[in-house]
């Protein structure tokens, strides 16, 4: 099995079954693996389509990245080869031009090989077919009073997290609007979403333990999101877009 086949098999397994779907505690190893790129973002998403779409998007962006890197490096190589040839016509050798041309050729070859690799993976992954059903609500008639008592600690902790996110986002947004610091401008586009997410979590706190009890997975599928949390999430995305438009104006 070559490297491409191994990667396709690895990603296909992640898309089919996910990663750490049953872990109700804070998984530092999973977070570290995501940050270092050892596993793709979305590997712990609760549904097949969510995992497939997120992983496919990341692979597609890699294809785009290396495609344009190969084209740009190829053009740079052509330019410096032409400049080096012009110097040779004058019986003059310019080591810097030759060196840049060789480096550009090496980058072109490397980027082309990486593009081919990711394109093969992308082409195979987009054909993956679901073989395992997505999680369904297992406790359809779960009593809300029972859930409140059973998961009161987790809900309280989640509300504290939501309060912290809300206050931090509100303070940073106020500071950015008042002073417009250039080093925090990019952060401003995410803050409206974080603010609304914090509010939504405070209104309807969710936890891995409760999700595990209700759905058999620690990640709540979007279709089971409470109405208040859905509204806050959608409003957060809308406010982010409006914030971007406001800064552009």
Give the topology.
Layout: H1 3-17, H2 28-36, H3 48-89, H4 95-125, H5 144-150, H6 152-179, H7 185-188, H8 191-203, H9 208-215, H10 227-248
Helix pairs in contact: 1-3, 1-4, 3-4, 6-8, 8-10
How would you describe this structure to a colleague?
The protein has 249 residues and is mostly helical. The chain starts with a helix and ends with a helix. Helix 6 (152-179) runs antiparallel to helix 8 and helix 8 (191-203) packs antiparallel against helix 10. It has ten helices and no strands.
Unreliable stretches (pLDDT < 50, length at least 5) are none
- Assign the structural class, choosing from mainly alpha, mainly beta, alpha/beta, alpha+beta, or little secondary structure: mainly alpha
User: What is the approximate shape?
Assistant: flat
Number of strands: 0
What is shown here, in short?
With 249 residues, the protein is mainly alpha-helical. The chain has ten helices and no strands.
Keywords summarizing the entry:
249 residues; mainly alpha; 72% helix; flat
């Amino acid at each position: 099995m070559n490297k491409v086949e191994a990667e396709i098999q690895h990603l296909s397994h992640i898309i089919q079954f996910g990663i750490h779907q049953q872990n109700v505690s804070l998984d530092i190893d999973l977070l570290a693996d995501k940050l270092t790129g050892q596993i793709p973002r979305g590997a712990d998403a609760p549904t097949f389509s969510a995992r497939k779409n997120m992983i496919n998007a990341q692979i597609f962006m890699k294809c785009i990245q290396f495609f344009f890197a190969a084209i740009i490096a190829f053009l740079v190589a052509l330019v410096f080869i032409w400049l080096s040839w012009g110097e040779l016509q004058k019986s003059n050798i310019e080591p810097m031009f030759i060196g840049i041309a060789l480096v550009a050729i090496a980058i072109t070859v490397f980027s082309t090989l990486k593009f081919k690799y990711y394109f093969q993976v992308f082409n195979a992954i987009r054909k993956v077919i679901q073989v395992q059903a997505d999680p369904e609500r297992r406790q359809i008639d779960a009593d809300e009073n029972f859930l409140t008592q059973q998961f009161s600690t987790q809900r309280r902790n989640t509300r504290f997290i939501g309060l912290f996110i809300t206050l931090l986002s509100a303070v940073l947004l106020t500071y950015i609007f008042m002073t417009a610091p250039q080093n925090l401008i990019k952060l401003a586009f995410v803050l409206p979403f974080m603010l609304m997410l914090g509010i939504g979590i405070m209104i309807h706190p969710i936890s891995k333990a409760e999700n595990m009890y209700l759905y058999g997975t620690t990640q709540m599928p979007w279709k089971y999101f409470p109405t208040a949390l859905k509204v806050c999430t959608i409003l957060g995305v809308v406010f982010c877009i409006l914030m971007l438009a406001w800064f552009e104006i």
